[in-house]
Amino acid sequence: MAQWAVAQRSATIGLACQALHISQTCYRYKAKLDAENGVIAERFKA
Question: pLDDT exceeding 70 applies to what percent of the chain?
Fold first, then answer.
């Protein structure tokens, strides 16, 4: 939703995040790829 506001409504990132009560860190978060998650899971198997 915040990304839409920035892209479509020319809102600043700060304003969009403040309006939606989220942090800018949350706005910029990118999930890791599934392949990377598999490698991490393999490392922690007991």
Answer: 96
The whole model's pTM is what? 0.61
Token reading at 43: 């490392």
Task: With beta carbons less than 8 A apart as the criterion, state whether 2 and 20 touch.
Answer: yes
Containing structural domain, residue 28: 2-43
Tokens of 15: 């304003």
The domain tally of the chain equals: 1
| 42/38 Cα distance (integer angstroms) | 6
What Å distances lie between residue 19 and 14, 26, 33, 34, 45, CA to CA?
9, 13, 29, 31, 42
